[in-house]
Design a protein that fits this description.
single chain, mainly alpha, Proton glutamate symport protein, 68% helix, symport, neutral L-amino acid transmembrane transporter activity, Amino acid transporter, transmembrane helix
Length: 485
């Protein structure tokens, strides 16, 4: 029966015959759909799959090559593709940091100030928690009790360093005298010995502090300059528009380059890990105490990464932290492969803005800053290492000494460079500041290649969690100000 009004056609319901409605999809159709789902998943997570596969291949290749008696030159050939990856990433880091910070700070001064205050508060809280975790584990497990007979008094020579000069160098590097030189060199106090001309010249020598430099980008100085430059630029409304557009264009160009380079990162990670495993010490050469020390550090990093940081993220945002973590697999595996927070920075920005859709005003301020300042993994490692060496020498630290050690570790880790083995450099400062023998740092060398990669992954993961936390706390300011496109 036809409806009286054509408008009633909207209410007509077309039903299928019962036989067709009761039919279920055939097994062939469901298998095709299942196959399409797998293909769609692989396309969406191609970077993650490739990077994690690269880590597995690199470890497998490294252990396979250990059975071959390879010379140092052959190992260098194996590492060469990975060396290219590190050089490319380090090439992109400098313009990326400068353009990201200036772009982020020049948008809205009030919003940037609140984001900065929350970021530093987050960095301080997580670093203190990491140090506390390390102290508790080192005191409870006491890994140094198993290594008292292996104190490395005759081990490799360690360069002399004064803790006060190291902190002064940190402040000096925040204000570089030459901005161009800061791109490839940083200030470092060097020491020379001269015979005393006083009454007791036969019995003593004087250590003279002299200004010097060391190779490497002065990231801290460039951070300070970029933040100040961006803040001033934000007050120059019409006059600074073209300059803001220039840095915005530069930032977008670098990110496009990152999108291209990121496809090469799995190849480089394979050979970086393979070469490192070929060079690592045999398990039999690692003493029980050093193995227990490594296990203590790894336990602390696991607690910090899978308990402390997720709890902080959930408490602040009320979101599932483990779902957040799944979008960071490529970041963490890249950090593990390169063992450099700075080299991982392009990948971190790509994943945080692509996978999690984080606001660029937050990511481009916090991630470059966190790659230099936020070193939770280094802080935990250093406090465990210092207490381990104290236990090796049967030195019992009092509560006051542990508090002093914690303060020194917090300060030293904050200025640690985001480069491979940077933790070992700041470790010398910690040992010298607490009166522990710096030559015993060679006890830690045999396992530091692994711990360096794990603490780098922890550092980078902490940076990403910080972005999520600060963006949630700053959501009202970000919504009220004009978004960055």
């Amino acid at each position: 029966m036809l409806p009286n009004n054509l408008y009633e056609l909207d209410s007509v319901v077309v039903t299928e015959p019962k036989e067709k409605a009761d039919q279920k999809p055939s097994g062939h159709g469901s298998s095709v759909q299942h196959g399409c789902d797998i293909v769609a998943f692989l396309k969406k997570n191609a970077f993650v799959v490739f990077t994690m596969t690269a880590v597995a291949l690199g470890i497998g290749l490294g252990f396979a090559l250990r059975h071959i008696n390879m010379s140092a030159r052959h190992v260098q050939y194996v590492r060469f593709p990975g060396e290219l990856l590190m050089r490319i990433l380090q090439m992109l880091v400098l313009p990326l940091i400068i353009s990201s910070l200036i772009t982020g700070m020049s948008t809205n001064t009030k919003t940037s100030g609140k984001i900065g205050l929350r970021a530093f508060s987050y960095y301080m809280v997580t670093t203190v928690i990491a140090v506390f975790t390390g102290v508790v584990l080192a005191v409870v497990i006491q890994p140094g009790k198993l290594s008292r007979e292996t104190a490395a008094s005759s081990a490799g020579k360690v360069e002399a360093v004064q803790s006060v000069d190291s902190f002064l160098d940190l402040i000096r590097n925040m204000f570089p005298s030459n901005l161009v030189e800061a791109c490839f060199r940083k200030y470092k106090t060097v020491y020379s010995r001269s015979s005393s001309t006083g009454q007791h010249q036969d019995n003593m020598t004087d250590i003279i502090q002299m200004p010097g430099t060391s190779d490497g980008t002065n990231i801290l100085g460039l951070l300070v300059f970029s933040v100040a430059f961006g803040l001033i630029l934000s007050h120059m409304e019409y006059e600074g528009k073209h300059l803001r557009d220039l840095f915005e264009c530069l930032n977008k160009t670098i990110m496009y380059l990152v999108d291209i380079v990121i496809w090469y990162s799995p190849v480089g990670i394979v050979f970086l890990l393979a070469a490192q495993i070929v060079n690592m010490a045999d398990a039999g050469d690692i003493g029980r105490g050093v193995a227990m020390y490594a296990l203590t550090v790894i336990t602390g990093l696991i607690i910090h990464s899978f308990l402390t940081l997720p709890v902080i993220y959930f408490t602040v945002t009320h979101k599932n932290p483990f779902r957040f973590m799944t979008g960071l697999l490529q970041v963490v595996t890249t950090a593990f492969g390169t063992s450099s927070s700075s080299a991982t920075l392009p990948v971190t920005l790509h994943c945080m803005e692509g996978n999690h859709n984080m606001d660029r005003r937050v990511t481009r301020f916090m991630l470059p800053l966190g790659a230099t300042v936020n070193m939770d993994g280094v802080a935990l490692y250093e406090v465990v290492a210092a207490l381990f060496i104290a236990q090796v020498h049967n030195m019992d630290f009092s509560i006051g000494q542990i508090i002093v050690l914690s303060v020194v570790v917090t300060a030293a880790s904050t200025g640690a460079a985001g480069i491979p083995q940077a933790g070992m450099v700041s470790m010398v400062i910690v040992l010298a500041s607490t009166g522990l023998p710096t030559e015993d740092i060679s006890l830690l060398m045999t396992v530091d290649w692994l711990l360096d990669r794990l603490r780098t992954a922890t550092n980078v993961f902490g940076d990403c969690v910080g972005v999520g936390v600060v963006q949630h706390l700053s959501r009202h300011e970000l919504q009220s100000s004009s978004p960055v496109k």
